[in-house]
Write a structure and sequence with these properties.
The complex is a heterotrimer of chains A (326), B (321) and C (336). Chain A has 326 residues and is α/β, with parallel strands linked by helices. Chain A is built from twelve helices and twelve strands. Chain A has a domain of 73 residues. The chains are: A alpha/beta (326), B mainly alpha (321), C mainly alpha (336). Chains in contact: A-B, B-C. Chains B and C meet through α1, α6, α7, α8 and α10 of B and α5, α6, α10, α11 and α12 of C.
Chain lengths: 326, 321, 336
């Protein structure tokens, strides 16, 4: 078995609400091996981004990580002192975000932002750092890197900005890249290019990828394994083939049925009724039960817990548990 | 760029002409030359004295329309003299206004420049500090102090500081001015302290809001994710971006350094433009008052143009066009 | 009709207007919620503001006594809380029983809680009466300036064209003159007096809000639902009244509160320049200045006026901060 890059167990992130602190991320477990790509999938508002941010202790105030254990590249993230945490950020795991327009500092050149990322982690001279930044730009497919390095973010297109963001993320050669909806804000053609780039980078460097997305089409293209999240909890995990091809959890099935390219052949496209409940107003028992077509007697009362299925696939569902038992 | 400059200047000129028209309406139509003369010569003076005063001070022409010589009116005279900077003599003591004002600019600058620089440095560093510790105890205490400081009238600061540092502790002279640098520093200490204290509350609150708003932006998260320390984030990323809104408030005030402060100068006996203005108010010297308002509006327009240009330096996204 | 009757009528009218506005605001869930939130955050500051308001109201209602009962001039409700002849010959210290200089016994020994001033008037009563002037300056001026600014700003922003040019020119001209100087120039041209001061404060005060209202209207005009209303043929006036103005109301409320303390503090500066309103705290502070250099010093005048001024401004600032946070966390972050 190859090296574990990320191991998160029992992760709980809370925010203050009307009735005390509410968990927006509730006991999430994630594990990624070197070179592997895990997709974390779910509708917006289900806690995906908070999970991603918590991995590098970037949860914005007043939120905080309440419980859990995170290990990145063998280091216990939650126990790290601040200086060590800083050197882990960018080097152990780097992040790119959904909005390339706002995620780059508007008053610094993109080159300066890459150079900063390099020099934060390595003692290199300004000239050397600049040369490496230009190389990174070339590597992420920015044409004419020597000139673009002196451009300000507003002078680049959306796709180029996201490439520059990736260049910043790659600056310290991270073992894990956390990409939070990296293509959501981009045009469809640009989306494909960025996804290709991410795939190439992973193959070249053996970097692991945690991809946060709500788009199952992207999951199908990029991921090795999939974790489906609903209302702060994981509800189904497993290999891409199993989760997308033989989904067991009614929520995953619902998601799949709503996407033309992935829906079972001949099936009608349907949507899941209702919407994700907001944090703090999560239903009792199985959190999906008010929207679930297969809900039955125990669902509103008892939290289903995991049911182990074949080949590492797991689902959190009473109906699935019954099927397996019989 | 050139086209923008021309447009901006043209609007500035129109604005200044508007100010001149406003001044004419105020001091020639609303308060008529007769009112002004009456105030100067006293209620009981005979009409002949009043007319003589008007003649001496150039208030004797028809105001808007002169049937004999169409150009020879107060309105034309007002615009001609202001635009050629031929300000004439004071209504009160007949000294040339231009000389008075030029003499006042030096002391004003000697007082406002240290106040401006130290206020800027103190305000920005204090609020950076407070914003750095946002949502903590320090931040809350800082905010409370800022609101408390803002709620005290400047008059009280003046009285309080004069009484405490000047009278009880005798650290500094209470008021006065001297042109030799060593003595000047001692005289300027109290007014600068009062200026700092009375301004710091609202400054701090404004800067803090800007800093806190900037530090919640996405690019700060990016910087943090790549391993930047909090100090570096504040000093390099947040400060640079915050400069843009701060500039709007700061650059526009720079020209007013010349005109000093009405309240502090006259209270502390600094013979600057502020004192001259207050003297003019007390002496019903309308001629000087008009000139001061006019000069201030010129400076304001200059400050606005300077602000626009400072944007291009601070914000790469802005290209004047 | 004597002046005080007019004033009583105006106060009644004002109270009626305030009640109608409050009742209308309570109709909207949004404003009710904001009000509750404000009360939740700043109960003490709100209570303080209400207290000042009550004192000012008590001082605004006045009437003359029946023939032959002594005092001829109309006296306010507030004054009637004190004895009719509640003054001494000159200075007396707080709660003193003899005059400060000379030591003659007082008419009301131990009754002047905050002492008396140079003319022997009770300082507590004077400090309380200052509330009326402050609320007049802060409240009445904003009540004149803000609707005017709203009218100009909305008309200019919504209609555009020459109207916008004219209003923008007016705003630029008034903005180009420093506030305090413009104020002084206006008062000197208009003559000194409470009404003149309020008018001058109003003229200088409306500018910045008109600018804000114009800018916001420009933005609102482009919003989808306004465009949609226009496409449906809704009349322009109706769009302005139904869609534009209600969306500016939160700015109106915030500006009102923030403007208030600025106006009161400005009046204090004017008082010091000899251009203020009689009976204001600024005037009391100005007069008390020389008293600090007497020996032994007279401090109670200054202390009373300063404390009263500080209390009101602090309470209003705290309420203003909360109002801004609740109603609008973003648009109005510039200095006011």
């Amino acid at each position: 078995m190859s090296e574990r890059v990320l191991e998160a167990e029992g992760l709980v992130v809370t925010f203050p609400g009307d009735a005390g602190r509410t968990a927006v991320v509730d006991h999430v477990d994630l594990a990624i091996d070197a070179g592997e790509a895990l997709a974390l999938v779910g509708e917006s508002g289900c806690g995906k981004s908070m999970t991603a941010l918590s991995l590098l202790r970037l949860v914005p105030k007043p939120g905080r990580i309440e419980a859990g254990h995170i290990e990145i590249a063998g280091q216990d993230v939650l126990a790290l002192p601040i200086p060590a945490l800083r050197s882990l950020r960018g080097r152990g795991a780097a992040m790119i975000f959904q909005e390339p327009m706002t995620s780059l500092n508007p008053v610094l050149t993109v080159g300066a932002q890459v150079v900063e990322a390099i020099r934060l982690h390595e003692r290199v001279g300004a000239g050397e750092a600049r040369r490496r930044a230009a190389n990174l730009f070339a590597r992420v497919g920015i044409p004419d890197p020597d000139a673009r390095i002196d451009a300000y973010p507003h002078q680049l297109s959306g796709g180029m900005k996201q490439r520059a963001m990736i260049a910043i993320a790659l600056a310290a050669r991270p073992k894990l890249l956390i990409a939070d909806e990296p293509t959501t804000a981009l045009d469809v053609t640009i989306q494909a290019q960025i996804l290709d780039l991410l795939r190439d980078l992973r193959h070249d460097s053996g970097m692991a990828l945690l991809l946060i997305t709500h788009d199952l089409g992207i999951v199908n293209e990029v991921a090795d394994r999939v974790a489906v999240m609903y209302a702060g909890q994981l509800v189904e995990t497993g290999s891409r083939e199993l989760v997308l091809g033989a989904a067991r959890h009614p929520y995953t099935q619902g998601l799949l049925r709503s996407i033309p390219a992935l829906a079972p052949r001949g099936a009608r496209l349907t949507e899941i009724p209702g919407s994700v409940p907001s944090a703090g107003a999560w239903p009792s028992g199985c959190r999906f039960h008010p929207r679930c077509p297969r809900a039955f007697e125990p669902c509103p009362r008892i939290d289903p817990g995991w049911t182990e299925l074949r080949a590492g696939q797991r689902a959190r569902c009473h109906a699935v548990a019954n099927e397996e038992a019989s | 760029m050139l086209a923008y400059l021309v447009r901006r200047l043209a609007w500035g000129i129109v604005t200044v002409l508007g100010v001149l028209l406003f001044l004419f309406l105020l001091f020639f139509m609303l308060a008529t030359p007769d009112d002004i003369a009456r105030k100067a010569v006293g209620e009981k003076a005979p009409q002949a004295v009043l007319d003589q005063w008007k003649l001496n001070h150039g208030y004797d022409k028809p105001r808007i329309w002169n049937p004999e010589a169409p150009g020879d009116t107060m309105l034309a005279e007002h615009f001609r003299r202001m635009l050629t900077f031929d300000f004439g003599n004071s209504d009160a003591d007949d000294t040339p206004i231009a000389d008075r004002l030029l003499g006042g600019a030096g002391p004003s600058l000697a007082f406002t420049l240290p106040l401006f620089v130290s206020g800027l440095v103190l305000g920005i560093s204090l609020s950076l500090f407070v914003a750095f510790f946002r949502d903590t105890y320090i931040d809350r205490v800082g905010t409370v102090i800022a609101v408390l400081a803002m709620s005290v009238s400047t008059l009280l600061y003046i009285i309080g500081v004069q009484f405490l540092l000047g009278k009880l502790l005798r650290w500094f002279p209470i008021s006065g001015f001297d042109y030799s640098p060593e003595v000047m520093v001692r005289f300027l200490a109290l007014p600068v302290i009062v200026g700092l204290v009375s301004g710091i509350g609202s400054d701090m609150r404004f800067y803090r809001t800007v800093f806190v708003e900037e530090s919640s932006r996405d690019y700060v998260r990016t910087a943090r994710a790549k391993g930047c320390g909090e100090g570096r984030i504040m000093g390099r990323h947040v400060l640079r971006n915050s400069l843009i809104p701060i500039l709007t408030n700061v650059v526009v005030t720079i020209p007013f350094l010349f005109t000093g402060s009405l309240l502090l100068e006259s209270f502390f006996g600094i013979p600057g433009l502020g004192s001259i203005t207050v003297d003019a108010i007390n002496a019903n010297d309308f001629a000087t008052l008009r000139v001061v308002v006019y000069i201030d509006s010129l400076l304001f327009v200059a400050g606005q143009i300077a602000t626009d240009f400072s944007y291009t330096l601070a914000d790469p996204r802005v290209r004047l066009g | 009709m004597p002046l005080h009757v007019w004033v009583n009528g105006a106060v009644a009218l004002f109270a009626l207007g305030a009640a109608v506005v409050a009742w209308r605001l309570r109709q909207s869930a949004l404003w009710r919620e904001a009000g509750r939130e404000l009360w939740h955050r700043r109960p003490l500051a709100l209570a303080f503001v209400a207290l000042y308001g009550a004192v000012a109201l008590c001082d605004a209602i006045s009437w003359t006594d029946a023939e032959g009962t002594g005092v001829r001039a109309p006296r306010s409700l507030l004054e009637r809380a004190f004895p009719a002849d509640f003054h001494e010959a000159s200075y007396s210290a707080p709660l003193a029983s003899v005059e400060f200089y000379g030591g003659q016994p007082l008419h009301h020994p131990g009754a002047h809680w905050l002492g008396t001033d140079i003319l022997g008037r009770d300082v507590l009563l004077q400090a309380l009466r200052g509330a009326r002037v402050a609320l007049l300056v802060g409240g009445l001026t904003s009540l004149i300036a803000i609707p005017l600014a709203l009218l100009f700003g909305v008309a200019a922003g919504y209609r555009g064209g020459w109207l916008d040019d004219v209003v923008l020119f007016l705003i630029s001209v008034l903005f180009a003159m420093p506030g305090l100087l413009l104020l002084i120039a206006l008062i000197m041209a208009l003559g000194r007096g409470p009404v003149q001061v309020c008018v001058a404060l109003g003229v200088t005060g409306w500018v910045s809000f008109a600018r804000l209202a114009r800018g916001e209207t420009l933005k609102l005009r482009e919003l989808d639902y306004v465009q949609a209303a226009r496409a449906l043929g809704v009349s322009e006036l109706r769009i302005v009244v139904r869609h534009v103005v209600p969306n500016l109301m939160h700015l109106v409320v915030i500006t009102f509160v923030l403007m208030f303390s600025g106006l009161v503090l400005t009046e204090a500066v004017l008082a010091w320049l000899g251009l203020g309103i009689d009976g204001s705290w600024g005037q009391m502070i100005d007069r008390a200045r020389d008293e600090l250099s007497r020996d032994p010093i007279i401090w109670w005048n200054l202390a009373a006026a300063s404390a009263a001024l500080f209390g009101l401004i602090l309470a209003v600032n705290l309420v203003g901060d909360a109002v801004r946070d609740i109603l609008d966390p973003r648009t109005l972050r510039e200095r006011t």
